[in-house]
Amino acid sequence: MSTEILIIDDNADIRVILDELISEAGYKTRLAANYNQALTEIDKKLPDVAIIDVKLDKGDNDGIELLNHIKSKNKDIPVIIISGHANIEMAINSLKSGAFEFIQKPFDKDRLLNFISRAIENYNLKKENKKLQNKLFHTFEIIGKSQNINSIKDQIQKLSTSESRVFISGPTGSGKELVARKIHKNSKRSKGPFVILNGALLDAKKYELELFGEEKTDGSISYGALEKSSGGVLLIDEVTEIPLETQSKILRVMIDQKFKRINGNHDIRVDVRIICSSTKDINFEIENGNFREDLFHRFNVFSINLDPLNKRIEDIPLLTDYFLKNMCDNYNIKPFNIKNNNYLLNYNWPGNVRELRNLIERIVILSRGSDENKILNIIKESLTKDEEDIFSIDNSLSVPLREARENFEKEYLTTQLKKFGGNISKTAKFVGMERSALHRKLKQLGVKDLN
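-> structure tokens emitted (451 positions)
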């Protein structure tokens, strides 16, 4: 779809000149000769860029009123104000009202076309930022009641009034990006963009291009992640993958709060909150010379660590129910539950929360909640047992009955304890034992308290 420019001017000659100039440059145009026509055109369909004469037929500043009307509908649409009676105060007032540029009649044609080109790039950049902000996650909820998750929720709350840089560590699929998004959503920058730069997915030669952008020989600009995230948050995922040479340049940006685009001559000021994440042991990477210690200290003003899912077993039932509800809503399927499934609690979850979410989506699509046996079969087929578990099962066939029974009781009671988050009273009630008797049995079997 071609870019559309709305031209608003009460001078017919100016409208013709602008129409011909802009059409020849390859843009689509619409015209309005007065204030009321302009209102009609704006309300009918918002343009990609508007060019407005500051003085039309209703008063000295009716062009500014139209500017405000456009901004009330979409604040990102760039508006270029033109005037034949310009003064410094008028120019300042129009820019304060949100004008992208101010240009005086008679105007230089090349200068005006340059303004239009920059305005379109600016608008497209903002649209791209919104897409980036909304993709990947349907929700910003962090689900769980484990000590680790409760601590993280508390940390996020404390960070809501801060501009501090944050370093998030945790295994793949544990929810690092979700934590970063929650920090962004709760912060003063929540209306700004949320941009992700994944260090693990980039070609080593493209890091600086992706970060800083480029000024091309044809005069166009390729914006980097630092500019795309201006006024918002930049998440540098897998930050340890960034080459040392680029790390030194990032450190300089952190110190000076400015940078130059590739092939650029002018400094670009930085207004961005940086959050970094990594699956690797950052201290190990520093010790082995793969990551700059001084840069890490700049990033690590506030640290958050996400435990793997197999260390927060009590979160699994909550996450399962949450994903089930969401998936059933997404696929328009009648809600259902997975009842007392110990496979989910005993599995090691190498892919963490992401793996659990993918399994639940698979269950919802394939079973549609129709049959508990079908659900169980999907889970069994999806989750391969650890070698240690398989070895344990094989060995149970070669031991005396008493030992096999003890092994079963130990595994059974450990599973039930995990299911109830280590709560002895709830576990005792479920298995049909007195609380004191369960305590004695656990001690006899050598099962440690999970709390």
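The chain has 20 helices and 14 strands.
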